[in-house]
């Protein structure tokens, strides 16, 4: 019967060396001994999904290691003190941060750790949570996709360079051939010059005939070239490229307009209101300014960078490559989730602030700026809500006119799928947030409150008049084993809930 597991000690020592030098998290922690309730201070180093501990910071050989793949980490309270001791020492132990690492397989005892500072303990827990080989594989897959994309671009550039090189060589050969022909013709012309002079003197109509023949040859060449150009202009490929370029030009114009709108929002409203909030008699607080505008300034900086990239691509027209720009833009679009989730709340805060006469007067002065063109602040706050759907529509149209063998088609399809996924997530979050806000608004209208409306599994369905009541709010319950309906009636009717009488109302 096998009593132990063999492992490569040299490999483990090498990983321990890397952990000491390049570990994600390193520092002193107290480790609870397995045989007794005693704590020993060790120096720990986390590398990828392996946790090493050493007797001291200068120790070259690890005292032990733990494999963290599939583990979880949670905070634990300080253990009770049974032995008597100085009050200061007991208080210092109680204030330490205790947490436990739970392994995903049976037979492995939990690892109990503690540190002196709460912030350091939270950082250790977060680092252990993220110590997963699966996350490393996902990151590697993303890097491989980018690498493959760059390799495709390099190969395309190499093919184009080779083609240009061959063309230059052919042109050099043709130039040499033409030079030799010119030299031969000049020699022939020198030999036949007396004969031509005599013929021109004797027959002056030959010159006119040659001019007519030269004119006809030039006219035939120009006609043939015009036919070739017109055939290409009328071809499906040329039409597709024209539509694709037009989509890109329209996208750049829309991005220019969007950046201008964000510039007005930030410089015409956000920054002046921040200054007003810091005045002696502020018409609005800094918290309200943050609630109304949230991360608008960050969104403006992001799209200024994206707009500069688009303009740089136009400088390389007619070769327009946009996939790498979307690869840079996609990881940063998560800031839209927070803005979209906060949009309705920001409009509510703005409506409440308008009740203040000083703020309303100041806001009307800002809105009277000619750059606003008569638009209100609510209009500028709504523009970012439609930017992600606009990108999805643009990419859909761009893919419709991008050949399947195009070098950036897969990257554009990947960008469109990611934007559609982000749009769905934002739509679900906005729906949930608006449902909770509507329920809370209804609950605040009831004098003594209503605990039923505080359940987050309730969904707002309908509000209107019914019989002798002024209003009716119908709620559907989710997340339980049986779906039910709840009716809240204002007026002489009482709170009523029944699933059997659904046909009545």
Automatic annotation (TrEMBL):
GO terms for cellular component: cytoplasm. GO terms for molecular function: guanyl-nucleotide exchange factor activity. Residues 22-133 form the PH domain. Residues 161-188 form a coiled coil. Keywords: Coiled coil. The keyword Ribosomal protein does not apply. Transmembrane segments: none annotated. The keyword RNA-binding does not apply. InterPro entries: DBL_dom_sf (IPR035899), DH_dom (IPR000219), FYVE_RhoGEF_PH (IPR051092), PH-like_dom_sf (IPR011993), PH_domain (IPR001849). SMART domains: PH, RhoGEF. Residues 243-429 form the DH domain. This is Ras-specific guanine nucleotide-releasing factor 2.
